[in-house]
Design brief:
320 residues, alpha/beta, binds adenosine-3'-5'-diphosphate, Sulfotransferase_dom, EC 2.8.2.-, transferase, sulfotransferase activity
Length: 320
Amino acid sequence: MSTLDPSFSQHLQEDELTPDQYGDFISSLPTTGFLSQYRGFWFPTKFMQGVLSLRKHFQAHDTDILMMTPPKVGTTWLKAILFAILNRKHHLDLQKHPLLTNNPHILVPYLDLHLYNKKEVPDLTTYPSPRLFSAHLPYTLLPTSVKNSKCKIVYLYRNPKDTFVSLWHFLEKIGMTTDSFEETFDKFCQGVSNFGPYWDHVLSYWNESLEKSQRILCLRYEELKEQPTTHLKRIAEFLGCPFSSEEETKGMINDISRLCSFDYLSKLEVNKSGTTHNMKNESLFRRGEVGDWVNYLTPQMSEKLDNIFKEKFHGTGLKF
Ligand code: A3P
């Protein structure tokens, strides 16, 4: 039986919740399908506990590196890249690299989806510095300790049409939707999508990065795809561990780029047949291309999304 007033979610200071009260709080939120609305964003209900607990308990260190993304923009890829860049001195032999036998989501854990999505508060003090974590939370909902720290944030976003098409395939594959393609599209356009509205998610980091370019690096899937080595260099510089000229001469940037590429990662046994947190790793690798939306969206759908994003991003400097 609920121990909470039904209007609780509107008045409550979530920080006062005990883990036993999370369930009641979450049930009091507006829902649709698999999603619950919390502070202006739609979260998969099954990860709401992680969202609340992370916001309440995570203590950022100045040396932390947080990789933030909306879903389906290439999170898996960027996890591989950041892990490989940061740990390159420990894994000079690429034939024995951890990415060969571990899915990137094991090497770079999600704070909201995994580490905090349980009753116990995780002990993250044992992680070696710099700690590398990821999450899908929008900037506005990050814990105060993150906003007040000097930790670095790498954010990735992607053309909304490809993001939507990728999301649709993924949700279907893992059984997290009962809606049709058209219904999912309509909801996406209304802002009702995992960790959406998508535009608000992107804008939350983009706007912040304009003021805090030393702390927040925003990357676009398409530019990473087009010029991976240029952006790998940019990422390493941003993280404070630029590639030396010796590393460049030895071809290390190209090696990391190849190691993390769709073709390479998707063909590894661990990513073809393994599972991570009960999810088949192969569901994270579909086509990995730019512009696949043309095969799925009608001209009317395409125009509708163009118009929405043109309006939402007007005057922000964001372009796709
Ligand atoms: P598609 O569905 O368009 O193929 P996320 O990791 O955030 O869940 O994003 C998944 C999307 O990134 C999928 O897009 C997937 O195929 C693509 N992807 C996965 N690994 C990639 C890689 N190494 N390089 C480029 N794209 C990759």
